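Recall that a protein's primary structure is simply its ordered list of amino acids. Everything else, from secondary elements to tertiary packing, is in principle encoded there. The following example makes that idea concrete.
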Amino acid sequence: MALSPTPAQRRVIDAADPATGRLRGTETQLAALVKRGLAFRHPRPPHDHFLTPAGHRVRESPAEPEPPGTTEPAAPAAGGVFAARVGGEEAGPGGAGPARLREVRGAWQGLLELRRMTRSDGSTDRPCGWERTHLVQAAALALEAAGHPPAGPDGEDGYRVRATPQPEAVAVYAPDGAALRGCAVTLERAGWQVGEHTEPRTRARYLLASPRKV
């Protein structure tokens, strides 16, 4: 679990590059952020430091003074990583406004950095290990980050991502064929293999998506 930063560390986090999460600071400051789970050191030269998904969440949260020893309230998460909307849940107090969009953008950038740092060639075109063990959240994040609206709790139009009996695949539903095809394009661009199928009983069309391996 990531620890809350000190005020000085928070200033380093706030000054991170808004697009990539790249950090500037002293070696002591950066090492402390790594120890707290808020940053990581890239394995390839020049070994720059970047925000982790937890660090991105801190940067997007309001900076408020806290009593010594307290920790920041946990954001919705799965395995310590930002929780995208899978469709069917409440939107929460932020709704789909600017704050939520910033959170989603930061989470997606953080996930791309995870891909980059876990590949020997630094590529980001295929899902990483975390995505393969959190299929529903990973696919939902790719969709939400691309601007697709999730379905609401009362059945409002939007995508829904659901687990399947297959160990490495999720099902994606959308309100119509055009929306379904749009989701397919987004997932393919994010490194997923996608096929369109029909449910035998309901005849509803859906996508079966799995992380691409090569």
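The two ends are 31 Å apart (CA to CA). DSSP finds seven helices and eight strands in the chain.
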